[in-house]
Amino acid sequence: MAAKSSTPRPPVVLGIETSCDETGVALVDAGRRVRAELLRGQLEQHAPYGGVVPEIAARAHVEILDRLIERALDEAGLSFPDLAGVAATAGPGLIGGLLVGLTTAKAIAAAHRLPLLAINHLEAHALTARFTDGVEFPYLLLLVSGGHCQLLAVLGVGRYRRLGTTVDDALGEAYDKAAKMLDLGFPGGPAVERAARDGDPTRFALPRPMLGQPGCNFSFSGLKTALRQTIERLGPDTLEPPLLNDLCASFQAAAADVLVDRTRRAAELFKTDYPAGSALVVAGGVAANAYLRACLARPAGELNLRLIVPPPALCTDNGVMVAWAGLERLALGLTDDLAVPARARWPLDPAAEPAPGAGIKA
Ligand code: KG4
Ligand code: ZN
């Protein structure tokens, strides 16, 4: 009998992201192809409160997740038995949302006898550059989002060494708070970046916390306080251009100086300890900021590191990164038991000291 001559298809993993305010669902194959991708934000639900409300977020995930999964399978022309595994973000993040995504993944895995992959959200951000650019380990990662601000040596799947973290606010959080003070809406990052484009970054001398200090930690709360005091001093005119633009530009310039200084120190350390490392990867929502990306090209160039920033849609939260992290773990046999818990906190480097004063930021 003639052998069946069908080309082997790369395995497909379903990825589910529900750790914050985006419901992300994606089907990705091991050939680095997105077979389907759906993303639903919840901005309208949270907007009246000026930030993400955990209960509202969890409810919004519940209402839509099943439908998104069904649609993704439809679009890809696949059904559950075609999958090689089911991956869901299991932490860190808002526990209600994490439970929705992880429980759904467990149910699918149990019903269809598929491997379950419980994904660390930070690892999903960290591995995205391997999906987009095929970066080899080890590499230096600057992870900057609304909840996280860390510098990590990425040594392998599940192998991270934290070189620095924020001792107070994450940078995205600082952008969001600045935007709130300036009445620019939520999320604040894109609005502040836009307003800063027409502003004078030297108009206001805002502080650069930690600049030149030993180590690679960050701090942004002093910058936020200084901005608030400047706004109070200037009065109602601050909410109008050109003052508004100058304030945003001055804030962003201070944030960039800190980011560049801390990243340069981490890059020096990284190159000393891992001479084979050749890339600086920037990930997380703040990596969507073009000004900050341009500034980070400096320390990368000085240390002979290739600067890799995934496209903005893969920097902010999404299902593709979760599916990809699932594929990476599946290939190494790192599957999870159905009893695996959701975790509000889940540091990538458990050996690192908790940052003093850090909230749920892992
Ligand atoms: O990774 P992400 O989608 O969610 C978290 O895991 O936090 O990041 C969202 C954060 C928000 O704080 C948002 O203001 C920030 O990323 N962000 C930006 C920009 N776009 C998004 N910050 C500065 N500039 C931007 N263009
Ligand atoms: Zn994120």
Summarize the structure.
The protein has 362 residues and is of the alpha/beta class. The protein has helices at 43-46, 54-76, 95-112, 121-133, 171-181, 188-196, 221-234, 243-273, 290-302, 312-315, 319-331; strands spanning 12-17, 22-29, 33-41, 85-91, 116-120, 139-144, 149-156, 159-165, 279-283, 306-308.
Topology:
Elements: E1 12-17, E2 22-29, E3 33-41, H1 43-46, H2 54-76, E4 85-91, H3 95-112, E5 116-120, H4 121-133, E6 139-144, E7 149-156, E8 159-165, H5 171-181, H6 188-196, H7 221-234, H8 243-273, E9 279-283, H9 290-302, E10 306-308, H10 312-315, H11 319-331
Parallel strand pairs: 1-4, 4-5, 6-9, 9-10
Antiparallel strand pairs: 1-2, 2-3, 6-7, 7-8
Helix pairs in contact: 2-3, 4-11, 5-6, 5-7, 6-8, 7-8, 8-9
Bound molecules: 5'-O-[(R)-(carboxyoxy)(hydroxy)phosphoryl]adenosine and zinc ion.
Bound chemical compounds? 5'-O-[(R)-(carboxyoxy)(hydroxy)phosphoryl]adenosine, zinc ion
The CATH architecture term of the largest domain is 2-Layer Sandwich
- Rg over CA atoms: 21 Å
Largest sheet: 5 strands, mixed
Provide mean pLDDT, rounded.
Answer: 94
Poorly predicted runs of 5 or more residues: 1-5, 358-362
Straight-line N-to-C gap? 58 Å
**Overall geometry:** globular
**Secondary-structure class:** alpha/beta
Strand content: 15-25%
CATH C-level of the largest domain: Alpha Beta
SSE pattern, N- to C-terminal: EEEHHEHEHEEEHHHHEHEHH
The largest beta-sheet arranges its strands as: 3-2-1-4-5
Count of alpha/pi helices = 11
CATH fold call of the largest domain: Nucleotidyltransferase, domain 5
Helix fraction, binned, reads 40-55%
User: CATH superfamily of the largest domain, please?
Assistant: ATPase, nucleotide binding domain
Question: How many independent structural domains?
Answer: 2
